[in-house]
Amino acid sequence: MRPATPVGPTVPPFLLNMKTNRFAYLLIPGLALALAVVGCNKRPGDLNTIPGQAGVPGDQGMNGLPPGQAAPSGDTNGVIPTAALPNPGDYNEDAQTLAADTVHFDYDSAAIKNSEQVHVEAVVAALRLDPTLKVRVEGNCDERGTEEYNRALGERRALAVREAMAKLGIDPERILTISYGEDKPVAPGHDESAWKQNRRADFVLLHPK
Q1: 70: which DSSP letter?
Q2: What is the rounded CA–CA span in Å between residue 74 and residue 111?
Q3: What is the DSSP letter of 10?
Q4: How far apart are CA 54 and CA 47, in angstroms?
Q5: What is the bridge-based pairing of β-strands 103-104 and 200-208?
Q6: At what angle do helices 147-167 and 117-129 cross, to 10 degrees?
Q7: Torsion sign across C-alpha atoms 144, 48, 104, 166
Q8: What is d(CA 16, CA 199) in angstroms, rounded to the nearest whole number?
Q9: How far is the C-alpha of 115 from the C-alpha of 157, rounded, in Å?
Q10: Are 206 and 133 in contact, with CB atoms under 8 Å apart?
């Protein structure tokens, strides 16, 4: 038997190649655009992050610093000063007057809750009464997580309080900050009852001598 003869005009092979290549040229830009859209839609989880650090959970952070970055140095007592501290000989420290106005934070958060705003306002009122006073805001964390991460989180908490006080009219130069991380717990337990007391910012009034 003779093979069946194709019906209709025959397309030369070189034209088929041209059509295939043309289709490929049209397809490639479309694929590239689709991949770009998919890539842009990928977003990290809603975690509190510190500029330049990996986004890991707060008081229970898994890594405190980016790969290859050393831990902060220059502190003698395991603390990170985040603003210039006055000469200790120039001021008397008073940790009792504002002890009731400690600001407490949620887990892995440096946001001041509405329920804690009253304490910030009380400290602001005390500073307004005497323009010679300064205050040191001490950021603290609970025991969970790496030491480096908790130091940084404590710093964020202290700076958040400083910013809130500045917005209420206090000169930021009167507000000093320091982070103790997990090194100064007020509650010794290892459960949520203790942890929520240790996630805090304390206030120390500084009276000029």
Answers
A1: P
A2: 28
A3: P
A4: 10
A5: antiparallel
A6: 60
A7: positive
A8: 71
A9: 16
A10: yes
Cα separation of 61 and 206, whole Å? Answer: 33
User: What type of residue sits at position 194?
Assistant: A
Tens-level pLDDT at each residue, the chain (209 residues): 455 555 555 545 544 454 445 544 454 555 444 444 333 333 333 333 333 333 444 565 433 333 333 333 333 345 555 556 677 678 999 999 999 999 999 999 999 999 999 999 999 999 999 999 999 999 999 999 999 999 999 999 999 999 999 999 999 999 999 999 999 999 999 999 999 999 999 999 999 99
Which CATH code, of 3.30.70.100, 3.30.1330.60, 3.40.50.1100, 3.40.50.720, is assigned to 80-208? 3.30.1330.60
- The residue with tokens 């404590």 is 154
Tokens at 171, concatenated:
């000169």
Classify burial at 32, counting beta carbons within 10 Å of its beta carbon; exposed 0-12, middle 13-18, buried 19 or more: exposed
